[in-house]
Every structure is written in C-alpha cells, then in structure tokens.
Amino acid sequence: MLPPIRSCTEADAPGSWRNCSSGRIPSGSGPQLCKGHNSSSSDSTDSGYGDMPAAFCGRSTGRYEKMTRQDYEDFEKLVGKHFDKKFGFAPPLQDWRLPEPSEMFVAERWKDARLQTLKDELNSVKSKLDSYNLNDWHKHTRAMNKAGEIQWRLRKELEPEFLTQAWCKFYENARSFILVPPTVVNTGCLSSVHLCEAPGAFITSLNHFLKLHNPGIEWKWLATTLNPYYEGNPLSCMINDDRFILQTLSNWNFGLDYTGNLMDLNNMLHLVQEAAKIGDVLLVTADGSIDCQEDPGEQESLVASLHYCETVSALHILAQGGSFLLKMFTMYEHETVCLMFLLCCAFNRVHVFKPATSKEGNSEVYVVCLEYRGRDVIEPWLEVLRKHFGPELPDKAVFPQASIPQDFLDQLYKCASLFKDLQTDVIETNIQMYERGRIHSQDYKIKRLRYLIANHFMETYEIVKLPESDEVVGKSKLKKTMTLNMDPRAEEGSFADRRKKSTLKPLELLTVLNEELDSMRVVWPFGDEDVKHLEFPTCVKGFKIQIGQPVKTVHSSKFCLGRLLRIRNQVREIARRDFQFSPSTENDISCKNTVASERLDLESELSQQLRKAYPKNKLIILNYKEKLWTSMEGGNEEAERNAFWDIMDAIDNMWRDENLLLQGYPMLTQFNVGIVYMLCHLFDEVGFVKPVKQDFAVLFVGFRKWNPQMRKFLGEVDDTIEKLHNEGGNRTVLSLFPINMLCERYSSESKTGEETREEAHGMQNGDRYSDRPEDHDNIFYKCVTEVNHLCVKEQVSDIIINILKKHGYSNV
C-alpha cells in the first residue's frame, strides 16, 4: 500500500519530493507537479521532466497538469486495488465433502441460473468489440494497460531470463501466496512439474524466485507441452517460440507418443511415472489454453476438457502438502463448478487471483491451490476421473447439481461476480476512451498510474537482478538461439472481418491466399552459387531413435516458416475439396507402396545437367519429385518408410567415389532431414542445388568407405522400422537425431560484428556463406530451410494460378 500523505515540514516544502524513485506520494498540500522543464531541482531524476517526480513520469514526456490532494488519494486507492484482485474460498467447520464416486458422471448436465446471468452480462459487454479492428483495439488497450510499464522496468533494470508476461504473472503468484511449501526449506529440495508450459517462462520465473528467496535449494523440474517438433501438431495449437525448449530438451517430456498431448491418458500416466523419478513433487503449474478467437463467448466450454485433464494430472503427480497453480477463465458452466468443488475438497486452501500483470480486459484468473491432502485421500475419485480422461468430456456432469453444497455455490457466485465486474468495468472504460479517438486529457494520469504501479510491483515483490550464472539457460545463450517458426501471428481486421473471411467462396479465398503468398519474400540466400557445397566429417555422433505416433499429415515443421506451410496446407485442401484438383500423381496416394516408384531413376533437365557436371563417376538418381510431397496430406508414414528403404538399398550397392542425386526429397520432417544429415557424413562433399521452380535436389559427391558406427546405427533404424511395421501398431520412428542437433542455427548476436559484416558482404556478392568447418551444421540448417521455402512457395503458387486461370482469372 502506498504511504499516506505526510504533513508539510521545512524539508518537505510544496514542490519538494522525497523518495520519488520509490514511487512514494509527495508531501505538502496541493503541490504542483511541474514548474517548467528548465527547473534545476536536485531531486528531479530526469531533467526532461523538470520538477515532476519520477514516480509520476512514464517513459516519455508529455503534457502535465496540477494535481490535488484528492488526486493523490485516488492514485493510492487505484494502485492498491490493482494488486488486490483476490478471492479466497472458506469451507465450513465440518468441511465440504465430495459426493460418493458412484455418483460421478451419472447426472445430466445442469446450469446454475445465477452464473448463467453473469455469463450473459459479460458476453453482452464483450460483443460490443465485434466491429473493432483488432490491431487498433489492441494498440488502444496496451496504452490503457495500467501494468504496461512493469515489463519495461524489469527488462531495463533487471534483465530477467526469458522475460514475458507469463514470467511476471507467475512471480506475482509466488510472492502473493505460499506457493512453494514451507517443507521445501526444511528438506532443502524442490521438485516441480509444469504442464502446458511452452514457451517456459514459468520455469525461469520460478528459478528467479527460488534463487532470491530460497537460495541453496536443490531444484529439479520436468515440463510438458504440445510438442513443437512433432510435425502432426498444427502450429495454430502451439506456442511458436521454442528457444528455451531447444536448450533444455532433457527436461521436457512429450509423452509415449511424442505428441506432447496431455489429454491422452497414456501420456498422462507416463508423465506421472517420469515425475516420480525426480522425487516428491510439491509444485505443479498448468498454464494451458486453447485458441477461442472464433467463438470467444464460449471460451469456458472450449477449454473445459483441457482444465479437467490438467487438474486430474496434477492430482496424480502431487505429493501430500504440495501446491497447484491452474490458469482458468470464467466459472459459469457446470464443468468448471464441479472442477472448483473438486479442488476445494482436495486442498486445504483455494484462492482465485488475477495478477496485476494479467490484462484487465480478459477473463484470465489463476486458481491457487495450497496444501494438497494427498493422492491416497482422493484415490477412489481419481479412479473414476481416469476413466473419463480425454480430449472430450462426457455428456454427463462430473457431480450432480444437488450434491454441490449451497454455501459453496454462494461463494463461487460471489467470486465469479467479482471478476466479471472487474472485467466489464475495464472493457466499458476502454470503449469510452476508444470512441473518443484518443486518450486525451487522461493520458498523463494513465502514464503516472502506470509508473506508480511498476514501482509498487518492484518494491512489493522485492525483485533484484540475478547473476546470469544462476539462470536456467542464460539470457545470452537464449538470445543467440534462433527459432524458425517465430513468425508473427497476424491479427487482421475485426472479429466480424475474420468471420466474413471464413465465409469467402473458394476462388475468393484463393485470391486472398495468393496475395498473402506474394507478400512473402523468399529468395536463394547464396547469391550466384547455383549449388551450395558443404563438407562434413566422416562420422556423426548423437544418434537417438525417437519412436512415437506416426505423422499422417504434416501440419508443422521446424524446417519451414509456419505461415508458408499453413498456406500450403490450406490451398491444397481447397484444391482437392472444391476443385478436384490434383498434381499428376496425387491419385497414387491411396495405393500402397507406390512411393517406392518404379522410376526412381527418372531423368529430368536438372539431373541431366548434373550428370554432365560429374561425368567421371556414376550418378545414381532417386527422384521423389511428386511421390513424397503429395503423401504429406495422408499416408506420410508409409511414404517415408518406403523412401528410407529405397535410399538404404541404393547406398548398400554403391562403390567408393560414386555419386548420389536425391531429387525432390521433401525435407520437412525430422525423419527426412535426419536421413539427409546422415548422408552428408557418408560422402566427401554435399551440394544443395538451387531450386528451379519446383525442381530441386541434394547432390552427394564421392561415396566414402562405410564408418562401422554409422552402419550399425542405420541397421538399428532399419530393424526398428521393420519391427514396428510388422507389429502393425500405432508407432513408428519419428527422428534419428535430437532436434537441437538438426537446428544448429544462431543469430547474428552470437557472432562478432566483423563476422556478421563479412557474412552479409559475402551473401551480397555471391561468395561462399562460410568456409569454416565448424559452421557446417549451421549452414546445413540454412540450406534445408531455404530450399523448403522456395519449393513450397512455388508449389502453392502453381496450384493457385492453375485454378484461378482455369476459372477465368486473368490477372494472376
């Protein structure tokens, strides 16, 4: 709480300020905030602000006005209110009791009239935003965000590792409640599990908290999330920043099937087993959500199954006395009511908290559950919960409405009303300010309030800078880690505009996608080099066979821009569904074993040119120009398996110094890229050929003598693939190397300024990208991705133009 206004003394004369850097209220009766920018007051922290105290200044100058004592009191109340958005459940003396397990999932779905009224009131206010342009609206709400200065202050003064809004929200939770149980201090160790954790800011925030407030604690952690490296996961369902994950892979568990899907029972039970290996888990966090932009009024129902699975997982993982932090939204439907009642019965204390750094205009809250009563206590109920674990909740309610105590429902209604009122008040205020066209006279007050709130955050939560040696990965290393799919998610137009776009006719939608495709600048990065030559050592280390659920359709790839791949998949779906359009071999997809083409040695203009370039040695050609690309919408597992056998047969029959041309081989999956990476180490030289429209290839020159270690490993891969294929199960080999081996890519920050300038100069003049042997992995990743970009864009453009021209569009 801000200190009260003090009486005026000689030291505190009007216009004089004390402790302004800490955000304290100035003394004196009705002091002026500004005497002019030319003041030479020694208490001013920034001469650009004149006599105005830093406590009331934002990061930019502006128009300032006099403030009254009432203004100061109002600021004090607003700051206090912003940090006090909490509700605590208070069970009766005899405690709440769960219904008998036999009563679970037998009653019909039900609705609480009072809670439904709150839902209608909230949706009525939110519906006023439907016609607003999202970019404009979000720009406005960012300016209105009272906590908008906090991240800037943290980044400027403390530079926390992997700072995000989630980082701030976790830290608030950890400092506002006893989230880390006191027993951790006694035992000297903490084990934590983090569900739906991508990109990982909860983990770095917890580390910061522990290093400052529980130094010396031995900390072990495990995390899970939808696997950003499993190509069957759509990008729309994942966080597209995997820098932290890439650097901490050994701490991440993606389940038995490698998808990272927590809503699969086998994956959940596997996670429970793995969590037990790091000791008694005393903290579980769950920060998951689902994109609800297309139906924001039903956000709660859309995320209900995820919240159910997160909660049931936590109740299986936690040790007695542990804490559970769950992100939730509104609490109007029976699914959430039952879940909250379950938590109130499983933990001694349950609070609902909206951190100051959580955007006021959304429904996000955190359920803080403390002092778990233990799995043994609730095992009879867990047994039933496991039976209904999955992506879809059953038609029946978890508990009958009559079994929920009325005093619990009353408290839940009070809780839901509190956060609904907070949200609607903010939305209504933002709408009023938005309709005026600009913030106008309130601008200076908002800036001062933002700065006061940032000061209060820094002082109340006692955050200080952490040495980089105490960080999980280290901010320097994270800055140097590039991740290809961090292309921004554009929010174009209003909600109504997006709805309208979803109703466009196929030809209209193709023209829109064609414009989006044209706006993407994709070029060959190696200047005049038509073939980018690389050399690799004779053996590669780090083999690791990863088994998991087969990828039937390639929805994502760490080797292609997410936006480009999304357009590709969307265009090909429209082409097949609405125009019965297919490339020349698309109809072959349904035929088994057709990927093992009878004409793998098919000559093309490109292969003829390369054969002339290497006339001395035999050139073996494997041509997958159409077969593998068309399989990515279905049957990808079988296509990749047969192609692998083709390549192995070709390699087994090769002699020293013979050459291999791998033509049209799509490098979008870890498995295919791993095969190419392996081949790079079997030949004296590798050349990535500049694509000519859709014609591209990788040329392997000078077959080496087999390295025994590599032959043994490829034999293991072959045996594993055949074994899994013969078993007929839903498992296959997904990768041959850890993803961080295949994604050795660093930003320019990892190089000296001279190196970066030389690299840029070389690319501009067509020089070789790098001649340093240690860069071969880095350039390999660049070659793979740039070839993919050029080919995918050309494929998609070709389909769109063919369809549009066929239907009379002449301006394409």
TrEMBL record:
RNA-binding recorded as keyword: no
Region described as Disordered: spans on this chain: 1-50, 748-771
EC number(s) per entry: 2.1.1.296
GO BP field: 7-methylguanosine mRNA capping; methylation
Compartment list: Cytoplasm; Nucleus
GO molecular function terms noted in the UniProt entry: methyltransferase cap1 activity; methyltransferase cap2 activity
GO CC terms: cytoplasm; nucleus
Top enzyme category: transferase
Pfam families on file: FtsJ (PF01728)
Active site: 327 (proton acceptor)
Residue numbers binding S-adenosyl-L-methionine: 200, 219, 287
Reactions performed catalytically: a 5'-end (N(7)-methyl 5'-triphosphoguanosine)-(2'-O-methyl-ribonucleoside)-(ribonucleotide) in mRNA + S-adenosyl-L-methionine = a 5'-end (N(7)-methyl 5'-triphosphoguanosine)-(2'-O-methyl-ribonucleoside)-(2'-O-methyl-ribonucleotide) in mRNA + S-adenosyl-L-homocysteine + H(+)
Residues covered by the Adrift-type SAM-dependent 2'-O-MTase domain: 161-374
Keywords: Cytoplasm, Methyltransferase, mRNA processing, Nucleus, S-adenosyl-L-methionine, Transferase
Biased composition (Basic and acidic residues): 748-761
Alphabetized PANTHER family for the sequence: CAP-SPECIFIC MRNA (NUCLEOSIDE-2'-O-)-METHYLTRANSFERASE 1-RELATED, CAP-SPECIFIC MRNA (NUCLEOSIDE-2'-O-)-METHYLTRANSFERASE 2
Protein name: Cap-specific mRNA (nucleoside-2'-O-)-methyltransferase 2
